């Protein structure tokens, strides 16, 4: 079985800071690479987590192969802008003159939104890429920055259509907007934990993506879900005179049951507020979190993904 | 614990990455101030709806709203001082700033309608941070509060916070603007292009690449803003003075997870580099490591292999056997997690200045998003020195509290005693 999410060209992974976006982005990229696809895992904007997770040093400006068929790339707005100007100004000396000028740094590089636009533009550029084998990438998984900022990125191409006069930028912004809104090529996956703040924020992002950005939605991943086979009332008090260990064991049980209850409550709230196919990922009691843990979570996700209704991010 | 430190401070700035309980910590510090008899205000960025509701600041406003004593009393909190809360409205703060400094109504309107300004005031990296600090400035100058707690934005961009005044000042630097923009403005676009071959060339290329509208708007913005530069520069000085004042404390809020601590290290290096030393560190949602019984666990710590022995001990204590396998494996899960956290926190602390005290707040079995949660957290943040003033524990209700049952054994002290024995573990990258 195979979920249609895996047929998209570009998957954006969006969510509040600290909920596990990078983990889910890595999980999707590994899943796609395991299906024999050539995958680009792109970190959009600043952030070090994803690079650490896949074992790539920060600051690489060319895709680095981290697993067979899986390459990692950090997409930085400033570098993308310079690269773009390199395409516009193919003469090296002129290009250098422009990008080292005060004017460039003061107005162009500092112009609100231009770097964001260039970052998303770079994703589009990679999506269009060709190699001797045909398409450069079968799929691109994008780890977006924390919510507010990623909406700013995703909003920019459409904003540029309005703000910029006729010119190269405007023409290219149109192509990027077309990609972002194309349900056959693109899907936005949301990541959250089942807790107060992330759930509120996810509800808000969902509305924004659907109603204001018009982007096709993929799957909602609920990360770090605690489950417990007991209810709070079923945990006994330590019998009188029991060793301290027993009290400690029961306290840990209460903590886990408490969080399982919180997660259950917020999962229910999420499902009422965010009508997206949902995959839950368990909280892992791991001392270190690396690719092995990503694969463990992927094993939990695969069965759920296969069972999801296929209308998920369709052309509805 | 934090009380002895914060007593001497008038401004407390909570920094740290998102999702670590920064807003809750900031609100708790302000609550502490109010309980101590101070006129306290917390300026939050994006509080959880429940906390905002609980504090009565769900709506954006340009004024702090007092939290009614009756509301506090409902949670058994008796404030000798007062507590107010305010949620930052970024756009509104920019508009007020422009309104305050614009030399004329006509210029004010021109700025407020400028498309570049609209974009800048909503999305310029650093502008949110600048406005937070601008608002802080307004609160300090009002003289209405003697404890102002600032929550910083929940992203890594919060780092821009420190540099925002500097960046805005550079951005609006008069000479540079005059050099670049004024010729263009006074003589028009064509004149600028002709004026100087290099500048003209650059303008032309940039125009081709970006579209002229954006640049024209930017220039108009700068020309409208030019009357405000001196006011801005003066403001930036005031802000720097507040940030560096001895009565201003930076408190780093973090969690014990690897990723969060990596970011916390980054924050701590940055404040040090900016000569704004940390006055305290709060570790939130820490899993408690229970001292391991040395007879049962000769290694001194709980290992996966101990699961069956733990299960046997639980059965021997008379707990219904069908629950025991889960209870034992859950305990080992938690203890291994807690061990990893303790090692990471120890390593993090070893890099901090000795004078920066820390406090750990356990991972409660419920989330803290209302006044009851603040009261609960308060017991940990201010346990040692503020015991007399610490609010009473809520009625036990349906659950047994997770905190140490005896408040006279503060979590902090136990934590420190234990981690001193730890060896530094090599960190895996």
Structure description:
The complex is a heterodimer of chains A (316) and B (429). By secondary structure, chain A is of the alpha/beta class. Chain A has eleven helices and ten strands. In chain A, β8, α9 (196-213) and β9 (217-225) form a beta-alpha-beta unit. Chain A is elongated. The two termini of chain A are 22 Å apart. Residues 312-316 of chain A have low confidence and may be disordered. Chain B has a single domain (1-171, 230-429), classed as Rossmann fold. The two termini of chain B are 33 Å apart. Chain B has helices at 3-6, 22-35, 49-55, 69-74, 90-101, 105-113, 115-123, 127-142, 160-171, 174-195, 197-210, 212-225, 229-244, 258-273, 307-316, 324-350, 371-381, 411-419; strands at residues 11-15, 39-44, 65-66, 82-87, 147-151, 248-254, 278-286, 358-362. With 429 residues, chain B is of the alpha/beta class. Classes of the chains: A alpha/beta (316), B alpha/beta (429). At the A-B interface, α3, α4, α5, α7 and α8 of A face α7, α11, α12, α14 and α15 of B.
| Overall CATH class of chain B | Alpha Beta
Give the largest interface pair and sizes: A-B, 82 and 79 residues
Overall tally of domains of chain B: 1
| CATH class call of chain A | Alpha Beta
Uncertain segments of chain B: 174-196, 385-429
> How large is the share of residues in beta strands of chain B?
5-15%
Gross morphology of chain A is: elongated
The average pLDDT of chain B is 73
Helix coverage percent of chain B? 40-55%
The major pleated sheet of chain A works out as: 8 strands, mixed
Give a short account of the largest sheet of chain B: 8 strands, mixed
* CATH topology type of chain B: Rossmann fold
CATH architecture assignment of chain B: 3-Layer(aba) Sandwich
Which stretches of chain A of 5+ consecutive residues score pLDDT under 50?
312-316
How many helices of chain B? 18
Order of helices and strands of chain B: HEHEHEHEHHHHEHHHHHEHEHHEHH
Estimate the mean pLDDT confidence of chain A: 85
**Structural class determined from secondary elements of chain A:** alpha/beta
Number of strands of chain A: 10
Rg of chain A (C-alpha, Å) = 22 Å
């Amino acid at each position: 079985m195979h979920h249609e999410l895996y047929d998209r060209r570009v998957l954006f992974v969006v969510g509040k800071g600290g909920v596990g976006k990078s983990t889910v982005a890595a999980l999707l990229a590994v899943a796609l690479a395991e299906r024999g696809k050539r995958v680009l895992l792109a970190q959009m904007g600043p952030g070090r987590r994803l690079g650490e997770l896949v074992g790539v040093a920060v600051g690489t400006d060319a895709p680095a192969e981290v697993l067979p068929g899986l390459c990692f790339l950090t997409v930085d707005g400033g570098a993308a802008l310079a690269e773009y100007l390199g395409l516009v100004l193919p003469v090296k000396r002129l290009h250098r003159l422009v990008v080292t000028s005060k004017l460039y740094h003061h107005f162009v590089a500092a112009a609100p939104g231009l770097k964001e636009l260039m970052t998303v533009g770079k994703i589009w550029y990679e999506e269009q890429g060709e190699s001797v084998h045909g398409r450069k990438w079968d799929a691109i998984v994008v780890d977006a920055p924390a919510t507010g900022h990623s909406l700013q990125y995703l909003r920019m191409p459409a904003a540029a259509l309005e703000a910029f006069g006729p010119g190269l930028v405007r023409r290219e912004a149109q192509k990027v907007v077309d990609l972002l809104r194309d349900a056959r090529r693109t899907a936005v996956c949301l990541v959250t934990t089942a807790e107060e703040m992330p759930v509120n924020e996810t509800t808000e992002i969902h509305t924004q993506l659907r109603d204001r950005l018009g982007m096709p939605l993929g799957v909602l991943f609920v990360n770090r879900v605690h489950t417990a086979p007991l209810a709070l009332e079923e945990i006994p008090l330590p019998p009188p005179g029991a060793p301290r260990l027993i009290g400690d064991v029961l306290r840990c049980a209460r903590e886990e049951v408490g969080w399982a209850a919180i997660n259950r409550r917020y999962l229910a709230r999420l499902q009422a507020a965010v009508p997206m196919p949902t995959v839950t990922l368990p909280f892992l009691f791991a001392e270190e979190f690396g690719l092995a843990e990503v694969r463990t979570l992927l094993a939990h996700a695969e069965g759920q993904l296969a069972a999801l209704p296929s209308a998920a991010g369709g052309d509805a | 614990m934090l009380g002895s430190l914060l007593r001497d401070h008038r401004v407390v700035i909570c920094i740290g990455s998102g999702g670590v309980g920064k807003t809750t910590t900031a609100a708790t510090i302000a609550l502490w101030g109010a309980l101590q008899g101070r006129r306290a205000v917390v300026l939050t960025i994006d509080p959880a709806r429940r906390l905002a509701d609980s504090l009565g600041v769900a709506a954006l406003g340009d004024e702090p709203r007092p939290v009614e004593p009756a509301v506090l009393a409902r949670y058994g909190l008796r404030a000798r001082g007062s507590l107010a809360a305010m949620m930052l409205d970024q756009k509104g703060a920019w508009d007020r700033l422009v309104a305050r400094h614009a030399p004329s109504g006509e210029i004010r309107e021109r700025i407020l309608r400028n498309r570049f300004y609209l974009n800048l005031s909503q999305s310029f990296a650093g502008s949110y941070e600048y406005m937070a600090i601008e608002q802080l400035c307004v609160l300090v100058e009002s003289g209405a509060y003697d404890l102002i707690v600032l929550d910083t934005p929940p992203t890594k961009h919060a780092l821009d916070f420190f540099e925002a005044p500097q960046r805005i000042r550079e951005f609006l630097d008069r000479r540079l603007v005059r050099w670049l923009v004024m010729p263009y403005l006074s003589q028009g676009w064509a004149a600028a292009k002709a004026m100087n071959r290099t500048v003209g060339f650059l303008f032309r290329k940039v125009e081709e690449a970006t579209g002229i509208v954006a640049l024209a708007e930017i220039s108009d913005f700068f020309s409208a803003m030019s009357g405000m530069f001196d006011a801005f520069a003066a403001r930036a000085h005031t802000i720097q003075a507040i940030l560096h004042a001895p009565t201003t404390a930076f408190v780093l809020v973090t969690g014990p997870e690897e990723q969060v601590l990596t970011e916390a290290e980054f924050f701590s290096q940055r404040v040090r580099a900016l000569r704004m030393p940390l006055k305290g560190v709060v570790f939130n949602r820490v899993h408690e490591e229970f001292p391991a019984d040395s007879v049962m666990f000769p290694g001194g710590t709980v290992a996966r292999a101990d699961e069956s022995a733990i299960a046997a001990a639980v059965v021997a204590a008379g707990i219904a056997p069908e629950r025991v396998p889960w209870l034992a494996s859950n305990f080992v899960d938690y203890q291994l997690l807690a061990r990893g956290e303790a090692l990471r926190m120890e390593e993090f602390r070893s890099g901090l200045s000795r004078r920066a005290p820390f406090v750990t707040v356990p991972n409660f079995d419920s989330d803290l998003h209302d006044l009851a949660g603040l009261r609960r957290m308060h017991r940990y943040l201010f346990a040692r020195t503020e015991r007399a003033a610490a609010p009473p524990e809520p009625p036990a209700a349906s659950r047994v509290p997770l905190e140490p049952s005896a408040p006279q054994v503060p979590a902090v002290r136990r934590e420190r005693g234990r981690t001193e024995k730890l060896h530094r573990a090599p960190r895996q990258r």
